[in-house]
Amino acid sequence: MRIVGTLEIVFSKALPMEAKDDIEKVIEYLNNDYLKKGTKDPNEAANIESFEIGEDRLIIKLNTGSKVRIDEASLRIRNVLSSILGRNYKIGVRNLKLTEPKILLDGIISVSISLPFIKKVYSEERRTIVELNDLFESDLKKPIFLRLLRLIEEKEKRYRWGGKAEHWILLKNSSTKPVLFYEDPNKILEEIGWIKRTSIGQWIYTPPLTHLLNSLKELFLDEVIKPLGFEEAIFPKMYPLEVGLKTGHLKGVINSMVFASLPKSYNISEFEPLIDYMTVMDEAPPKELQKYVEPPSYFLCFAQCEPFYWFFENEILDDNLLPVKWYDMSGPSFRWEAGGIHGIERIIEFHRIEVVWLGKPEQVIDIRNRLLEKYEYFLDKVLDLEWRLAWVTPWFYEHSGIVEEKIEIDIDRPGTVDIEVWLPYKGSREENKNWLEVGNISIHGTKFTQSFRIKHNKDETLWTGCSGFGSERWLIALLAQKGFDPSSWPKKYLEYVKRKPFPKSISTITYPKTKEGREALHQIDTKMRV
Amino acid sequence: MRIVGTLEIVFSKALPMEAKDDIEKVIEYLNNDYLKKGTKDPNEAANIESFEIGEDRLIIKLNTGSKVRIDEASLRIRNVLSSILGRNYKIGVRNLKLTEPKILLDGIISVSISLPFIKKVYSEERRTIVELNDLFESDLKKPIFLRLLRLIEEKEKRYRWGGKAEHWILLKNSSTKPVLFYEDPNKILEEIGWIKRTSIGQWIYTPPLTHLLNSLKELFLDEVIKPLGFEEAIFPKMYPLEVGLKTGHLKGVINSMVFASLPKSYNISEFEPLIDYMTVMDEAPPKELQKYVEPPSYFLCFAQCEPFYWFFENEILDDNLLPVKWYDMSGPSFRWEAGGIHGIERIIEFHRIEVVWLGKPEQVIDIRNRLLEKYEYFLDKVLDLEWRLAWVTPWFYEHSGIVEEKIEIDIDRPGTVDIEVWLPYKGSREENKNWLEVGNISIHGTKFTQSFRIKHNKDETLWTGCSGFGSERWLIALLAQKGFDPSSWPKKYLEYVKRKPFPKSISTITYPKTKEGREALHQIDTKMRV
Known about the structure:
The structure is a homodimer.
Chain A lengths: L1 E10 L5 H16 L13 E8 L3 E8 L5 H20 L3 E14 L11 E7 L2 E6 L2 E2 H5 L1 H19 L6 E6 L11 H7 L3 E5 L2 E4 L1 H19 L5 E3 L4 E3 H7 L1 H4 L6 E3 L10 H10 L4 H5 L7 E3 L5 H6 L4 E2 L6 E5 L4 E2 L14 E2 L1 E8 L1 H22 L4 E6 L2 H5 L15 E8 L12 E11 L1 H5 L3 E2 L6 E8 H12 L8 H8 L16 H14 L2
């Protein structure tokens, strides 16, 4: 990346001859020394290519890299000149203007021209040229310019990185286990009516499925979460947009988010035309409704851990408190999925036990390690599943729209471990597509403590971690490997299921829908009651 | 209400003299007999005021009431004429047109002029006149016309009824009990940091408060819900608008609902200008965002029972299944409140155990009665609260935008019982404003079985019922009367709280915020651990 432009400095009065000599010396010093400071690579620093001294002004052609950027270079030049000319001749800087600034990028990159300061974007010979409007001193001091350059830098990196968005490195896997079942549990659950689809990717779970889910969640809490000292909290499930800016989700996964809007008025009489229309036409037209609601100012629970960082926003913590270990299971998450929705395996509205922690780096890593151990025990010994763990692109890098250039396994650095279980109904265990991600464990480094400004009283570094247990997916994974005969279920899980009487299935004239479904329900329901 | 208009019937050919005589007789029969059928009040029936027989047509001036309405009258006239003229002269009806139809209403009523068929609305001398466009046969046959008249009728009733929207009749109350505490538990909970406000009417509950809430929910389930055989289900928490049309909420409480929208595209590159803007400006502008999302096609969980009726939509049930008794506690409800938001007593996002049932009327009434008994036991014996029960305007009448004209206590008819608890911190028990509604029990009659077309295989009538247990409000009510010293708490509740170790409070450099808060936390936290 190169940044070029012409810096025009207007002084408070005409320059005497001696001042012109001084300026030449200053420019030499700047070019050889001060404009090179801050990077070891002179290419990434700033360079004065030429200059011209006028009666009361100085015109400088600048060409800079990405470390000492043109804005920083302009301000350094201004400061040095103002200090020397002020001291020697009582001359000040009246005006600073960067004309025709241009950013020259390798590769073809799309940058939105609706951005402030951007005049024109075009490409020639595999380069993208971003022309900016003229910038004044106040513009150069704004972080907006810095963020704009960061955005472009990121896009440039992403361009060079290409489409290699998927990284997956096997960490560990279980032994292969005898296959008991080859059917799709999603299909069976719908056929026997334990679940009923209400809308795209949304379902009602009847009491039998609710009971199986609850039993699995309780078992997970008892075996994994509670022994490690995590305590339950209740997090809201709708967040102002600003929270999504801070977590990065609004930048990284905005296409999968569901947004919420408030009514424009609390006075119901203002809705009368719409209510009249709905009453007479018996339909609710979204476009009409939109006129009565505010633009979306919230998004629905996406990662479920958002409120944890939000809770500690701007707080100063001390050692007595740390580490904090909480979990939340108080409501659903929403993830819009355009394709690939399937049963309760891949859904729009789903349920998760979200485990979160906060502490010093060594505490956060230690908790992650202990959690990982427990997960392995839970997968292998408690549920007896065929599983594997993988090191994947740190999710928050993806989710925040930032892309890292390389991936390496360093378990003590921020990153994510995916937990996957084989689904025999999908096909051979050799193919990746036949494995289901049921959860993950991440440590985020300072990503969230920084953006939510969570501080330590002795300025020590604070990290966070989170882990999501996708309830529906764990149950599907279990049923996919073990089937619907409880005698094949892991002993401990069966014990939890048997703690309470098995709930009634819904069976009546038109439900389940098909004769096959009703027969299958009868068989499965009978086995549950043995 | 009067409806007037001119009906023009064009026949398939010119009328012979004899036919004109027949028509005169037919009109006499219609006016004295057929147009009066369907109501005992001749004023509410239809009347032919005058008529004129042309060469091939008949022009009739009609004036009708609200029982045999002008559309129905027009079709009756058409049918009789077509049958007689067809038989005697092979003459058919070629065309039917109602010109200049007008609805004359008592009182000043606002009707949206954007409604289809409406030409003009104006008022004169305390009457409202609704002029419709000319209507043809196909219009007269549409239910839209019927619904329009119903809408106007309802508005007319509401106008006459005035603002008397609140009905409240005491059913039963507890004895007065000794007052232990006069402080506002909401204030204390925030001060000691057990809850933290994140956004308008939304809070994060830390583990100590979560534990108190969970203990109360468990106690309620064990004492009230499970002994009556209710089983847990999991309901979605976001519903398509059509569901709100069927429950009536979209018409009755649209001003308190939160709406949800999906992204327009699943392709993240289409969001690039917005993402670039958010990255550079570090803000998420709702108006910009709105351009990238669809108009709202969902609403967030409002009454929490919606999915229950939705589940049984279009199903045919038999006696073996009935009654169905479920509850859901899988996530939050959202209710936009413009004013009066206070602590966790009145909030935007809240948690509820929603109890629902479905059966024949006697089953539904019986379940309601048993539930009411258990509630009373729970309030009085288990929690030892000062409480009262009130019969209120059937909520669904209010909620669906329909207003009933009188209220009477007939406990076996559809209606709602409110459960209220006194909040000593608000003031004297004599004043209504110092009582908090913590829940209610409703039976809906056929309201939902009708709109969701839930049928019985032998065509017997099916009713539904629901009851909401507002978790936060019950806890606030308990703390408001008993305070924060567990030794004053009801024995059974304390037993549930003591089942698990009391969770850690958050106490660190900047949290709780004030010195008083930190001291109060220390005192309360210590008592919890005794």
